[in-house]
Design goal:
Elements (H helix, E strand, L loop, with lengths): L5 E8 L5 H9 L16 E7 L2 E7 L11 H13 L3 E7 L3 H13 L4 E6 L1 H6 L2 E3 L1 H8 L3 E3 L8 H14 L10 H13 L9 H9 L3 H10 L2 H18 L3 H20 E3 L7 H9 L4 H32 L2 H9 L3 H37 L1 H8 L1 H6 L7 H9 L1 H6 L7 H11 L5 H15 L1 H25 L19 H35 L3 H7 L1 H7 L6 H8 L5 H10 L10 H13 L4 H11 L1 H29 L1
Parallel strand pairs: 1-3, 1-4, 4-5, 5-7
Antiparallel strand pairs: 2-3, 6-8
Helix pairs in contact: 3-11, 7-8, 7-10, 13-15, 13-21, 14-15, 15-21, 15-23, 15-27, 21-22, 21-28, 23-27, 26-27, 28-30, 29-30
Bound molecules: guanosine-5'-triphosphate and magnesium ion.
Length: 644
């Protein structure tokens, strides 16, 4: 037989088990990694070459079970069942094997060649859990590969196992449920014999007994009513035997199987004493103390960003000061020379103003994320989120929003219902992203003090809260309950944290730098052509009369649509200095910061909103934000003027 040299493999498993870490090792790509469930929201593909094979690898979104209907779970289920990859690598968190096995059993029902990558072996040793791999292989009849993904151990072995598996093409032997269930599955398989659908018949039969709505619909389209009637009859029989809903019976059968397998292969030798992480967990999730710890941790985070950012910013300022004079001495002040200088100056301003705050911001965010603390915040604020009419999970897109609103909007898909998805998406656009952090820290924090910077954050959170309540009243419906497993704390893996910070930074520089340079040159060009003033003046009814800002800020706000940090970076370009206190009084500083925080989603976020919710809604949110920001900032500036 000629060997097939092209392979298609999919990484599937429950959420937060290390699929993306393995994917990144395999493909050299940079999928997002962190310690909370639901990071990967859309399947991502990469290619690698191994021993003469060209292997396409897919990182699938994490799943709770293959029976529910959130979009990411359907993506995974359909992909495995219909696209039929050559092999599936079932990534499993070894520290919670029993829970993961339930998913494995469901996966095996899809009848694709499967390899189990038993991950987090390093933690097994710590938790004194022993797993008998050979026994597990025998029971499941699939290869089981021990893996320590973050250290890159076991990755090549996964590929070896996959290649070995596709070469043999072993016939599929299902793990059997209880007799009374098996008998009914068999009957349904017979009934389904001539139905032409891409799914395995045994899987269809099980799903029909589970009352899976999608499968019922599919079977109804493809076959005579008879089969569904037969399924109903068999469901009833099961319910009579077990006195429970038939979907529950099947789920219980799987749990029973998983628990039996776990009992056979796991040996726990851990002493009974309470571990440090368990203590830490009970403190950080505590009903009252948890909030204090949260405020403390976030407070330290912002203080560090502020102190480090200010320090680095002034260091860079001192290094880069006085360059303009030298430039003009060498190249003169012709139009061309001025335009080139504008480009350089914009880049310098970006490095001087934005970078010092963005670096510590991402580093700490990823540190907290990899440690597992972000998931605790989701748990703590679940109550609060319910008041906004959404599930506590909504907190996750919102936390992501602090980094960048774009992935945050996309990750609204983890919400169960369309309504919650939209409310969360709407609120996410109000979360101050890293670019806004730059404005708050570099403008308000630097010139008015950290107290004012924090007050602005609190004010925006209050606005988000109020808008959330209003939105949930306008779009009525009950939030779904919090079903999110809180992951264990893991010692943050510094290399992962540093490389994630680096990728974000790289992305930031590649996207922001060209925009900043082009904007700088355009502004200089407008200035030289004498157009800057007329444009600024045309906006002055809003900027000067209503908001009380200098007319020039109109230009900044226009460029800020591209990227929010442009508001500040271009301000320094226009002024020729980053000492903003020279041109803005304290009330103006606060007003400008507030408008920048609220006034519009940046262009990339608008695009993300359009993709997720349609253009009508995206433009609706944009229009709302512009009007809302102008209104609120105007009122606040008038109130501040009374007291200042
Ligand atoms: N200690 C330890 N941690 C690991 C290992 N593999 C992954 N992790 C951590 O587990 C967490 C989850 O990893 P991801 O790769 O993001 O998980 P995922 O399965 O892609 O998760 P979703 O995309 O959310 O479904 C991260 O914090 C990783 O650093 C491992 O072998 N040992
Ligand atoms: Mg992932």
């Amino acid at each position: 037989m000629i060997e097939k040299k092209k392979l298609n493999i999919a990484l599937a498993g429950q959420a937060n088990v290390g699929k993306s870490v393995i994917f990144n090792h395999l493909t050299g790509l940079h999928q997002h990694i962190g310690n909370w469930p639901g990071k990967t929201i859309e399947k991502v593909e990469g290619t690698l070459f191994y021993k003469g094979y060209m292997i396409d690898v897919l990182d699938l979104p994490g799943i709770c079970s293959l029976s529910t209907y959130s979009i990411e779970e359907l993506i995974s289920r359909d992909f495995i069942a219909i696209q039929r990859p050559d092999a599936v690598v079932n990534v499993v968190d070894g520290t919670v094997l029993e829970r993961n096995l339930i998913f494995t059993l469901q996966l095996l029902e899809l009848e694709r060649p499967t390899v189990m990558a038993l991950n987090m072996i390093n933690l097994l040793k710590k938790k004194r859990i022993e797993i008998n791999f050979q026994r597990l292989e025998k029971i499941l009849q699939i290869p089981v590969v021990p893996v320590e993904a973050i250290y890159g151990k076991g990755i090549a072995e996964i590929l070896e196992a996959v290649i070995g598996l596709v070469k043999i093409e072993k016939p599929f032997k299902p793990l059997k449920f209880g007799e009374e269930v098996e008998a009914r599955i068999e009957k349904l398989i017979q009934a389904l014999k001539d139905v032409d659908v891409p799914y395995p018949k045994r899987w269809l039969a099980i799903k029909l007994l589970e009352k899976d709505k999608e499968v019922e619909k599919l079977v109804k389209e493809k076959s005579p009513q008879k089969i569904l009637e037969e399924a109903k009859k068999l469901q009833k029989e099961l319910e009579e035997i077990h006195k429970h809903d038939s979907s529950f019976v099947i789920a219980a059968e799987r749990c029973f199987l998983a628990s039996n397998i776990a009992k056979e292969v796991i040996k726990i030798t851990a002493p009974k004493k309470i571990s440090f992480t368990a203590r830490l967990d009970s403190l950080t999730s505590h009903k009252i103390l948890g909030y204090f710890v949260m405020i403390l941790i976030l407070g330290i985070m912002f203080l560090t960003i502020f102190k480090f950012g200010n320090w680095l910013s002034s260091v860079l300022e001192n290094i880069l000061i006085g360059w303009q004079g030298s430039w003009e001495r060498v190249f003169g002040s012709s139009i061309l020379s001025s335009l080139i200088w504008a480009a350089i100056e914009s880049l310098v301003a970006l490095i001087e103003i934005a970078l010092p705050y963005i670096v510590p911001f991402y580093f700490i965010l990823f540190l907290l994320e990899d440690w597992g603390y972000l998931a605790r915040i989701a748990f703590l604020v679940d109550n609060l989120m319910h008041k906004l009419g959404v599930h506590g999970k909504a907190c996750i897109p919102m936390i992501l929003g602090f980094g960048c609103n774009v992935p945050a909007c996309l990750s609204c898909r983890i919400m169960e219902t369309q309504r919650e998805r939209f409310i969360t998406g709407f609120l996410v656009t109000f979360i101050p992203c890293s670019a806004i952090t730059v404005i708050i820290m570099g403008l308000v924090g630097k010139f008015l003090g950290i107290g004012w910077a924090l007050s602005l954050y609190l004010f925006v959170f209050l606005i988000i809260f109020i808008l959330g309540i209003i939105a949930s009243k306008i779009l009525p419906g009950e939030p779904t309950e919090l079903i999110m497993s809180v992951p264990d704390y893991k010692f943050p893996h510094l290399k992962t944290v540093i490389s994630q910070t680096w990728f974000r930074l790289e992305e930031f520089l590649f996207i922001a730098a060209p925009l900043v340079i082009i904007s700088g040159v355009i502004i200089k060009g407008l200035y030289l052509a004498g157009w800057l003033e007329p444009i600024a003046n045309s906006l002055s009814p809003i900027t000067v009369q209503w908001l009380g800002l200098p007319a020039i800020t109109g230009i900044l706000l226009i460029f800020g649509i591209l990227r929010k940090e442009l508001v500040l970076v271009m301000l320094s370009v226009l002024l020729g200095t980053s000492n903003f206190a020279q041109v803005l009084n304290p009330v103006q500083i606060l007003t400008l910061a507030l408008v920048s925080m609220l006034y519009i989603p940046c262009i990339a976020t608008i695009a993300a909103l359009g993709k997720e919710f349609g253009w009508e809604r995206a433009l609706g949110i944009t229009a709302f934000k512009i009007m809302f920001a102008i209104l609120i900032a105007g009122f606040i500036s008038k109130i501040l003027l009374i007291f200042w």
